[in-house]
């Protein structure tokens, strides 16, 4: 048998079958994207995915010393003030994507480390599959003296669960999963998802109607006290306007990609939020989880980091905060947690803020990962 007939007669059909099985699984199992990320996150870092091989085997976050007690909150801490009056700390921690975010033992430890080090803002999502471990970390910290009312926990509903009934059914379950009496903020994770299979899709309901139905259900759940604030993520201005037109709860927050390299169109989203009193949380603040090392090679950032005697990471986080966003860099490393909480100590001059703003128009910007929010779906 020739090579061509082996490739086209055996290998290609098997690959096509595997891709078809994968796409079918992805499109029909609601948590398939979460399981996919839970495999790929650790795999990218050459670690065995705990979702397949068991939790507690991964290295990365050391145990918290038994006698460690809460340290003071950071000096000069800054906040985003939400329409409810709640104060969301500007420096938070993200619980997704890096390998250590998918090992429940390390997630529990990192939440405890972070809260004992003075951090108070935790960013999660249903699709990160780690609600339970985050809840246990919060419980551990409360037992060591961190007041629950100081903690701000955000989570997100994934498009596969959108729809009025599905939202009413899904979100309250998270109280049991996390062990919390209330959630501080629930965001709609994205306007839509390619291949999403929500109650709306099955019923042929348009994306716009589906988002509005979901918002209606979230507003009702907020009224019941399940969560204190509701918001969106990766939404474009017109998609936020659809929700505002319902005259239900105000949009408390939009979480989207924000760093010095994102194209100018993200500025339109940013400006819409500012004009509409919608607080902003940026992700990929360090350039994207796979590109933080690349950010350290950008000359402008290197020179400014040297000038202020800080790391490029701290400079980038502070730039975002000074531009008016909250940041949620993920880390399982207590040293990085500490550094990210010291971001309030730095003050970048307006001239240097402008120099960083200008990176967006430089050639280097195109080398950083950018997911166009229009790709999330109409
Ligand atoms: N709404 C959305 O659609 C969406 C999308 C993506 C992400 N998010 C959220 O945003 C969060 C942040 O995402 P991201 O992609 O920016 O980052 P990430 O995936 O959380 O990873 C950040 C990376 O930076 C490293 N790091 C953190 N602090 C550092 C420091 N001070 N110095 C050097 N390295 C540092 C971490 O490594 P170490 O562990 O070694 O510190 C980690 O590898 C996520 O965790 C998630 O909560 C939301």
UniProtKB/TrEMBL annotation:
PROSITE patterns: ALDOKETO_REDUCTASE_2 (PS00062). InterPro entries: AKR, Aldo/ket_reductase_CS, NAD(P)_OxRdtase_dom_sf, NADP_OxRdtase_dom. Keywords: Membrane, Transmembrane, Transmembrane helix. Residues 108-360 form the NADP-dependent oxidoreductase domain. Signal peptide: none annotated. The chain crosses the membrane at residues 12-40. Gene3D superfamilies: NADP-dependent oxidoreductase domain (3.20.20.100). It holds the Pfam family Aldo_ket_red. It comes from the Eukaryota. This is NADP-dependent oxidoreductase domain-containing protein.
């Amino acid at each position: 048998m020739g090579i061509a007939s082996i490739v086209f007669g055996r290998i290609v059909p098997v690959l096509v079958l595997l891709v078809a099985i994968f796409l079918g699984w992805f499109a029909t199992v609601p948590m398939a994207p979460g399981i996919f990320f839970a495999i790929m996150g650790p795999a990218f870092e050459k670690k065995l995915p705990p979702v397949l091989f068991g939790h507690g085997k991964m290295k990365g976050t050391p145990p918290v010393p038994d006698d460690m007690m809460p340290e003071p909150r950071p000096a000069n801490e800054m906040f985003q003030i939400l329409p409810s009056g709640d104060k969301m700390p500007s420096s938070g921690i993200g619980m997704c994507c890096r390998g250590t975010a998918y090992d429940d033992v390390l997630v529990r430890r990192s939440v405890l480390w972070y809260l004992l080090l003075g951090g108070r803002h935790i960013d999660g999502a249903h699709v990160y599959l780690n609600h339970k471990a985050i809840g246990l970390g919060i419980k551990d910290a409360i037992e060591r003296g961190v007041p629950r009312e100081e903690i701000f926990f955000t989570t997100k509903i994934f498009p596969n669960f959108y729809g009025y009934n599905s939202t009413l059914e899904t979100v309250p379950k998270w109280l049991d999963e996390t062990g919390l009496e209330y959630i501080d903020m629930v965001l709609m994770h994205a306007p839509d998802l390619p291949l999403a299979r929500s109650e709306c899709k099955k019923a042929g309901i348009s994306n716009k109607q589906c988002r509005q139905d979901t918002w209606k259900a979230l507003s009702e759940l907020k009224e019941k006290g399940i969560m204190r604030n509701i918001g969106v993520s990766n939404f474009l201005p017109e998609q936020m306007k659809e929700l505002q037109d319902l005259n239900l709860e105000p949009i408390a927050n939009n979480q989207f990609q924000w760093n010095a390299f994102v194209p100018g169109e993200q500025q339109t989203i940013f400006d819409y939020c500012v004009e509409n009193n919608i607080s902003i949380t940026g992700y990929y603040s360090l350039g994207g989880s796979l590109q933080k090392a690349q950010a350290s090679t950008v000359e402008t950032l290197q020179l400014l980091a040297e000038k202020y005697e800080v790391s490029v990471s701290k400079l980038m986080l502070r730039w975002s905060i000074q531009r008016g966003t909250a940041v949620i860099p993920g880390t399982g490393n207590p040293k990085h947690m500490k550094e990210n909480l010291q971001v309030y100590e730095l003050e970048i001059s307006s001239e240097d803020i402008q120099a960083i703003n200008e990176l967006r128009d430089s050639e280097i910007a195109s080398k950083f990962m950018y997911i166009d929010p229009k790709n999330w779906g109409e």
